[in-house]
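Protein Record: Sequence and Backbone Structure Tokens
======================================================
Tokens: labelled as protein backbone structure tokens, with as many entries as the chain has residues.
Question of interest: how does this chain fold, as expressed in backbone structure tokens?

___
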Amino acid sequence: MTYPQLQSPPPRARRRSEGRPGYLDLPARILAAVGLAVDGAVHAYLAGHYALSAPGISIGTWFRVEAVVAGLAALLVIALRRLVSDLLGWLTAAVGLIGLIVYQFAGLYEASPFVDLNELLWTAERTLSLPAQGLAVVCLTPLLVERLHRTADRPA
């Protein structure tokens, strides 16, 4: 008399946070990348304008650096989907957003060492850059929180 082979129990079900991304992961990444790309494009456009007004290291140089970092962050957020890329994108957008708001509304433009940025007007570019940076921050924040939560839950 032969006995039936006992099968091993089915593997335990994976929680959503253990493996595959959530349903909103890709749309959030796409929107964040769009926000970062718009931020980079605005800074690249403005860099030429501000570089003309001061020789050497001007605000135009800083804007070029911001444009490159924002563009790189947009690509990495979509392509890598790692904590480091999400953090780079979030920091790029958040620092730009906070800098723009604090610079404009705290009156730092009056004491700025960059004479070429001492303007009170909200140009179309600033008006476009502010929501783009805000969109990237809003979309990347839950992704970062989830990834950090997932990292903290991992067994040692």
